[in-house]
Design goal:
Number of helices: 7
CATH superfamily of the largest domain: Vaccinia Virus protein VP39
Radius of gyration: 19 Å
Oligomer: single chain
Helix content: 40-55%
Strand content: 5-15%
Largest sheet: 4 strands, parallel
Strand order of the largest sheet: 3-2-1-4
CATH class of the largest domain: Alpha Beta
Distance between the termini: 15 Å
Shape: elongated
């Protein structure tokens, strides 16, 4: 899969780095805050009257810079808030950040210090480099998976479209409308296939 080696963010902290040019992604992540908080409440309340002793959270496609910890930080805070509300001890948390190997993990590792809490439960952090189309974690080990601006990357273009040389988007509006159901269906099928494995 050649694309996983070609697609990556600009590294470092410079003027053209992803860290300085990711405002749109940051806005998307802020809109996900309520969804993550609700998911944590559903996850914690469905497990039983007591929370599990340990919980694992993963962010697929974390990238680097100020957005790298945004989603998992919301999840960690939501878990802490839920536990405070129920007056239960919070579980030990393990947070994994994932992106392609060419990601600027040096910048990510430096930011991991901010997620650790001095007065809360232990938050263990780790990096899981690699494509999320490959196995990254042991079976049944992750409680919550977050992702923003990365799951739209499929492992490959749908075969039915490439075999028939059908582009994902036609400039001609008539052709676009005619082929749209087939194109949407092909991409949806490829997405389901990618995430079944």
């Amino acid at each position: 899969m050649a694309s996983k080696q070609m697609v990556h963010m600009n590294q470092g902290q410079g003027e053209r780095s992803y860290a300085r040019n990711s405002g749109i992604q940051n806005a998307q992540q802020k809109r996900m805050k309520l969804l993550i908080e609700r998911t944590i409440i559903d996850l914690c309340s469905s497990s039983s009257s007591l929370l599990p002793d340990k919980m694992v959270i993963a962010d697929l496609g974390c990238s680097s810079g100020p957005n790298a910890l945004a989603l998992v930080s919301v999840a960690v805070e939501a878990i802490h808030g839920y536990c405070l509300q129920l007056q239960q001890p919070p579980p030990e948390l393990c947070v994994f950040l994932n992106d392609l190997p060419d990601n600027d993990f040096n910048t990510v590792v430096k930011s991991l210090v901010t997620i650790r809490r001095c007065n809360g439960p232990v938050v263990v952090t780790g990096i899981a480099p690699g494509s999320f189309y490959e196995r990254l974690f042991t079976s049944s080990s992750v409680h919550l998976v977050c992702s923003s601006s990365s799951l739209h990357w499929l492992s490959k273009a749908p075969e039915v479209l490439t075999k028939n040389q059908i582009p994902a988007y036609y400039i001609d509006e008539h052709a676009r409308r005619e082929k749209l159901p087939m194109v949407l269906g092909a991409y949806a099928q490829q997405f389901r296939k990618d995430f079944r494995h």
